[in-house]
Amino acid sequence: MILAIESSCDETSVSIIEDGKHIRSNIVLSQIESHKRFGGVVPEVASRHHVEGITATIDEALNSANTTMEEIDAVAVTQGPGLIGALLVGINAAKALAFAYDKPLIPVHHIAGHIYANHLEKPLQFPLIALIVSGGHTELVYMKDHLSFEVIGETRDDAVGEAYDKVARTIGLSYPGGPQVDNLAAIGEDSYDFPRVWLDKNSYDFSFSGLKSAVINKLHNLRQKGEVINEANVATSFQNSVVEVLVGKTVAACKNYNAAQLIVAGGVASNKGLRTQLAITCESNGINLSIPTPQLCTDNAAMIGAAGHYLFKAGVIADMSLNGYNHMDIEQCSIE
User: Fold this and answer.
1) Range(s) for CATH 3.30.420.40 in the chain?
2) Measured between alpha carbons, how far apart are the two ends of the chain, in Å?
3) Mean pLDDT over residues 232-258, rounded?
4) Which contiguous run of DSSP H or E holds residue 44?
5) Is this model's pTM higher than 0.70 or not?
6) How many helices (H) and strands (E) does the chain have?
7) Cβ count within 10 A of residue 17
8) The Cα angle at residue 205 between residues 200 and 207, in degrees rounded to 5
9) 278 CB-near residues (< 8 Å, 6+ apart)
10) Residue 336 pLDDT more than 80?
11) Which CATH code, of 3.60.21.10, 3.40.30.10, 3.40.50.1400, 3.30.420.40, is assigned to 123-291?
């Protein structure tokens, strides 16, 4: 059994994972209400909330799993990427537990965790393509086996979640904006001519800065002219552009790499429009698709425990000098 801690952004989460796939407990303490009035995550506020909640969350996770630290085999924790102050709260809590109870300490890459969230519901099948979509990341990762990460495509500017949040703010939606854009998109029509950015013909890279600017400029121009803005149609037109490019490039990668499975990971993987279109396109192309339930798409410690299980089996153990990093290359975490 692994006790896992996730504190990379604005969720304090602790989970107990057995055999890398059985969730004994998964406690998530959200900070959304605290950050809503600022329109986004304030790092200093996030860190303070982690400090206030980490001990109680650890206790709740152990009690919910009906276990004790003596029965835990190792402690896993998110090392990065993320907000450095927030990461350090989780890392120091994990180091304290590992030291006090003489348990191995396992450092986990946050995006590796998102990938292994799929494993909690459906075993990973290799080789696979992972589409990572979140507030800070948009990447296509090729995996030929467990803990083998090769980035074959990434965003050249804004991550898709970042674009969603900025468009939501311009429309006038409150934080967190991504889910609200998704809900609006379900009732609107694709009436605005927003661009699809495909970049080079053979590239798996993404770019959402131009699309974001196109939406913002369109809204500003309409407001200056005093014209009525159909917010639902803006959301639909924006989301259709995003989804078409994400799905198109991802399916092309699956075909070119002969992937046995496509998995989707990250907070934006809970987007209903993206999930629906991926399901339709993958079925028509004979692609084996896996997307976690929405609760496992957002940041949580269960995914860290699932990845930590395979790192533990591979002998990846940290010492008490373990530090956090706001930027980390997932390819450097590959185990050959």
Assistant:
1) 2-115+296-333, 123-291
2) 24
3) 97
4) helix 43-64
5) yes
6) 11, 10
7) 28
8) 90
9) 247, 250, 262, 264, 289, 291
10) no
11) 3.30.420.40
**Architecture in CATH for domain 2-115+296-333:** 2-Layer Sandwich (3.30)
Indicate the DSSP class of residue 214.
Answer: H
**Radius of gyration (C-alpha) of the chain in whole angstroms:** 20
Of residues 63, 86, 84, the one with CA closest to residue 16:
63
Tokens of 81: 């990427």
Amino acid at 3: L
The two structure tokens encoding residue 94: 């994990």
Residue 126 pLDDT grade (very low, low, confident, very high; cuts 50, 70, 90): very high
d(CA 307, CA 285): 29
Provide mean pLDDT across the span 162-171: 93
DSSP code at position 103: -
Residues 101, 96: Cα–Cα separation, whole Å: 8
* Residue bearing the bigger pLDDT, 201 or 95: 95
Comparing CA positions, the residue from 335, 164, 130, 89 lying closest to residue 253 is: 130
Task: Return the exposure string of 159-171: e unless at least 16 CB atoms fall within 10 Å of the residue's CB, then b.
Answer: bbbbbbbbbbebb
- 72 token code pair: 């835990």
